[in-house]
Specification:
two-stranded antiparallel ribbon; developmental protein; elongated; 2 domains; Frizzled_dom; 10 helices; alpha/beta; TIMP-like_OB-fold
Length: about 280
């Protein structure tokens, strides 16, 4: 996500208002290297794009990679469609831009993710620059708006408490006072460039399920790591994995907040005892 600052500055340097709708354009096949727009639903794009980029290999492809960390956070289900309509606009008889309403929907969900990393929403993606007409632009889909409101989602937050070798009573108290408790192995990849990348290895085991969905919890935790990178970096060393017991709460707006993280080592008797006693625990 740190690389986003570079693309944000590049985007601001070539604002959408400078794009001339009357200029000559050409259609090209979306290359495999343009991974952020893979499976976007069409195979040809216009050049120059709406950022004014006309060189596919020298501008479009390398700068598009800087958007990938944002898309990986899952900040909005139509974020890919929105971004690709700008960096790889579909090749039709007329120019199709995102509607103002789609921009607002994506911005309202994704700008907090950028803010969590210390980056503002780019001025070049100011939603006032997009048309309010709903018939010649990309609109937000109602089904996605419904999902965003109803499903639990990770949120930017202050880093949760991490307690090493906790006592059994401390762990049981955390289980009682929070909505959910799970065990998950967090893995941090080692990249030559130094860019962090986190994954949740294997299965997520429930101790207390609460309102979490079994099929979605692993994905939610991975998105939490990508959104809260400054917290995640302190949890696992590069190239290593660490098993954690995580407890947290789901806020009224659906945001998932992690509260306590207990690294679980082989010698941690307190955690092992707490997980065994939990079935019979009265809070």
């Amino acid at each position: 996500m740190a690389a986003f600052l570079a693309v944000a500055l590049a985007v601001v340097a070539s604002p959408l208002l400078a794009f001339d709708m009357g200029q000559s354009t050409r259609c090209v096949t979306i290359p495999n290297q343009l991974k952020v727009c893979k499976d976007v639903g069409y195979s040809e794009m216009r050049l120059p794009n709406f950022l004014g980029h006309s060189n596919l290999e020298g501008e479009v492809v390398p700068r598009s990679e800087d958007w990938r960390p944002l898309l990986q956070t899952g900040c909005h289900p139509q974020a890919q469609s929105f971004l690709c309509s700008i960096i790889a606009p579909v090749c039709l008889d007329t120019f199709i831009q995102p509607c103002h309403s789609l921009c607002v929907a994506v911005r309202d969900s994704c700008a907090p993710v950028l803010a969590c990393q210390g980056h503002p929403w780019p001025e070049a993606l100011n939603c006032d620059r997009f048309s309010a007409e709903e018939d010649m632009c990309l609109t937000p889909l109602a089904k996605f708006s419904h999902l965003i409101k109803d499903l639990p989602k990770p949120a930017c937050q202050n880093c949760p408490s991490v307690q090493v070798a906790p006592a059994m009573k401390t762990v049981l108290s955390a289980f009682c006072h929070h909505d959910f408790a799970v065990t998950a192995k967090l893995h941090r990849l080692r990249h030559p460039t130094g860019e962090p990348d986190f994954q949740v290895e294997g299965h997520v085991e429930f101790i207390r399920q609460g309102p979490l969905l079994p099929y979605d919890t692993k994905h939610l935790l991975q998105e939490w790591l990508l959104i809260n990178l400054r917290c995640a970096i302190a949890l696992v060393r590069p190239g290593r994995s660490q098993l954690y017991v995580l407890t947290g709460s789901v806020q009224p707006d659906g945001d998932i907040i992690l509260v306590h993280l207990f690294p679980w080592h082989k010698k941690d008797a307190g955690i092992a005892l707490a997980t065994r006693k939990w079935k019979h625990q009265r809070c």
